[in-house]
Design goal:
The protein is mostly beta strands. The protein is about 0% helix and about 50% strand. It has no helices and 11 strands. The radius of gyration is 13 Å and the shape is globular.
Length: about 120
Protein backbone atom coordinates (compact mmCIF):
# COMPACT_ATOMS: atom_id res chain seq x y z
CA UNK A 1 0.00 0.00 0.00
CA UNK A 2 1.27 3.45 -0.91
CA UNK A 3 -0.10 6.75 0.36
CA UNK A 4 0.98 10.01 -1.23
CA UNK A 5 -0.06 13.35 0.25
CA UNK A 6 -0.15 16.70 -1.50
CA UNK A 7 -1.58 20.17 -0.99
CA UNK A 8 0.51 21.48 1.86
CA UNK A 9 1.99 24.96 1.81
CA UNK A 10 2.17 28.29 3.57
CA UNK A 11 -0.92 30.30 4.39
CA UNK A 12 -1.85 33.20 6.65
CA UNK A 13 -4.01 32.72 9.70
CA UNK A 14 -7.67 32.55 8.74
CA UNK A 15 -6.88 31.02 5.37
CA UNK A 16 -7.74 27.65 3.88
CA UNK A 17 -5.96 24.69 2.35
CA UNK A 18 -7.06 21.34 0.99
CA UNK A 19 -4.87 18.30 1.43
CA UNK A 20 -5.14 15.24 -0.78
CA UNK A 21 -3.96 11.68 -0.28
CA UNK A 22 -3.89 9.13 -3.07
CA UNK A 23 -3.96 5.49 -1.99
CA UNK A 24 -2.68 2.70 -4.22
CA UNK A 25 -1.41 -0.84 -4.02
CA UNK A 26 -4.52 -2.88 -3.25
CA UNK A 27 -8.16 -3.15 -4.24
CA UNK A 28 -9.79 -3.17 -0.81
CA UNK A 29 -12.29 -0.46 0.07
CA UNK A 30 -13.28 -1.47 3.62
CA UNK A 31 -10.72 0.33 5.73
CA UNK A 32 -10.32 3.25 8.06
CA UNK A 33 -8.37 6.26 6.77
CA UNK A 34 -7.34 9.43 8.47
CA UNK A 35 -5.24 12.52 8.77
CA UNK A 36 -2.71 13.00 11.50
CA UNK A 37 -0.13 15.68 12.21
CA UNK A 38 3.09 16.28 14.03
CA UNK A 39 4.18 19.75 15.04
CA UNK A 40 7.87 20.47 15.72
CA UNK A 41 8.91 18.96 19.03
CA UNK A 42 5.53 17.38 19.66
CA UNK A 43 3.95 13.94 19.48
CA UNK A 44 1.79 12.77 16.62
CA UNK A 45 -1.78 13.96 16.96
CA UNK A 46 -4.95 12.63 15.42
CA UNK A 47 -6.81 15.18 13.29
CA UNK A 48 -9.68 13.41 11.53
CA UNK A 49 -10.66 9.91 10.49
CA UNK A 50 -13.16 8.43 8.06
CA UNK A 51 -14.44 4.90 8.57
CA UNK A 52 -15.52 2.63 5.75
CA UNK A 53 -19.10 2.88 6.96
CA UNK A 54 -18.93 6.65 6.51
CA UNK A 55 -18.49 7.65 10.15
CA UNK A 56 -16.14 10.56 10.78
CA UNK A 57 -14.23 11.61 13.88
CA UNK A 58 -12.44 14.87 14.56
CA UNK A 59 -10.14 16.08 17.27
CA UNK A 60 -11.59 18.83 19.42
CA UNK A 61 -8.92 21.22 18.19
CA UNK A 62 -10.11 21.08 14.56
CA UNK A 63 -13.82 20.28 14.91
CA UNK A 64 -15.89 22.77 12.97
CA UNK A 65 -12.91 24.00 10.95
CA UNK A 66 -11.67 20.88 9.12
CA UNK A 67 -13.64 18.42 6.98
CA UNK A 68 -12.52 14.95 5.92
CA UNK A 69 -13.97 13.43 2.77
CA UNK A 70 -13.23 10.80 0.17
CA UNK A 71 -13.39 10.25 -3.59
CA UNK A 72 -13.84 6.48 -3.41
CA UNK A 73 -13.67 5.62 -7.14
CA UNK A 74 -10.30 7.37 -7.38
CA UNK A 75 -9.00 6.33 -3.92
CA UNK A 76 -8.39 9.94 -2.82
CA UNK A 77 -8.80 11.16 0.74
CA UNK A 78 -9.19 14.90 1.34
CA UNK A 79 -8.83 17.22 4.28
CA UNK A 80 -10.41 20.63 3.79
CA UNK A 81 -8.90 23.01 6.33
CA UNK A 82 -10.48 26.39 7.01
CA UNK A 83 -9.95 29.16 9.56
CA UNK A 84 -6.38 28.00 9.94
CA UNK A 85 -4.43 29.02 13.03
CA UNK A 86 -0.68 29.21 13.65
CA UNK A 87 -1.04 26.24 16.01
CA UNK A 88 -2.18 24.14 13.02
CA UNK A 89 1.39 24.33 11.69
CA UNK A 90 2.66 20.77 11.35
CA UNK A 91 3.55 17.98 8.97
CA UNK A 92 0.27 16.34 8.01
CA UNK A 93 0.22 12.61 7.34
CA UNK A 94 -2.34 10.42 5.67
CA UNK A 95 -2.67 6.94 7.16
CA UNK A 96 -4.70 3.77 6.78
CA UNK A 97 -5.60 0.71 8.81
CA UNK A 98 -5.58 -2.79 7.42
CA UNK A 99 -8.87 -3.83 5.78
CA UNK A 100 -11.86 -4.70 7.96
CA UNK A 101 -10.65 -2.70 10.96
CA UNK A 102 -12.66 0.27 12.15
CA UNK A 103 -11.09 3.53 13.20
CA UNK A 104 -10.69 4.15 16.93
CA UNK A 105 -11.69 7.79 17.00
CA UNK A 106 -8.62 9.78 15.94
CA UNK A 107 -6.16 7.35 17.52
CA UNK A 108 -3.00 7.15 15.42
CA UNK A 109 -1.20 4.24 17.06
CA UNK A 110 -3.21 1.52 15.31
CA UNK A 111 -2.79 2.84 11.77
CA UNK A 112 -0.82 0.41 9.61
CA UNK A 113 0.23 2.40 6.55
CA UNK A 114 1.57 5.95 6.41
CA UNK A 115 2.42 8.51 3.78
CA UNK A 116 5.53 10.68 3.92
CA UNK A 117 3.65 13.79 4.96
CA UNK A 118 3.08 17.28 3.64
CA UNK A 119 4.06 20.44 5.52
CA UNK A 120 1.46 23.05 6.43
CA UNK A 121 2.73 26.37 7.77
CA UNK A 122 0.29 28.96 9.11
CA UNK A 123 1.65 32.41 9.82
CA UNK A 124 0.06 35.00 12.08
Amino acid sequence: VQLVESGGGSVQAGGSLRLSCVSSGDTYSNYCMGWFRQAPGKEHEGVATLDYDGRTSYSDTVKGRFTISQDKPNNILYLQMSSLKPEDTAVYYCARRSPAHYCSGVEYKNMDYWGNGTLVTVSS
